[in-house]
Amino acid sequence: MHSRSRLLGGEPRPVPAYNSCGLGLMPKDALADEAEKLLERGFRAMKLRLGYPTLAEDLAAVHAVKARMPAGTALMVDYNQALDVDEALKRGRALDREGLAWLEEPIRHDDYAGAALIARELTVPVQIGENFSLLAGMQSALNAKACDLVMPDLERIGGVSGWQQAATFAAKRKIKMSSHLYPETSAHLLAVTPTAHFLEYVDWADKILQEPLQIVDGCAVIPDRPGHGMVWDDTAVERHRV
To answer: Which residue of 23, 212, 237, 241 is 20 to 30 Å from 77, comparing CA positions?
Structure first.
């Protein structure tokens, strides 16, 4: 039997990954300490949640994290739909000067007209996509020019087949495509995605796997084992069973 990436016509290969396991809304000193920890496993990119009450607090959080980042580390920021369009423009213009990898979901996820305005006005790339419902949702967003980057969710986009359709569409539009969650499976899919960008890494499955997904030199290493490559730790599974 072959790994999923081989079955889809590709090869298991290292996939650039960012650490999405922390950096929530917290005091800036705690953010700085956590940023250092998130890079310990070999990551060269990480994501920071923003949406503090004021722009000044958002900028302070960015600066606190950047102060602990080695040169060449990529920083993504995610507003989780916290802003309206006017506030997103105000904060986005200030963040344009910070050299960010992307600005994620600044406004309501389905306001494609508002997102298109933001994408036109800002220099920082606008990232959306975790809430796309099947390929049609992604097509609507890209037809509206609502973003510069996309990051479909494996479940919401329609599983493996839906992902493949989305990857083909992104390639036609020359849009870089990242993943949302499900890193152990999404890594295989990104390995066969023509415009693959970043894998979103979370460690949620680590406690019940014999061998968690490995990160080497900033990339997820896809195991060359049958299927998705995950091997359950049966003892741990039983321990965590509800």
So the answer is: 212
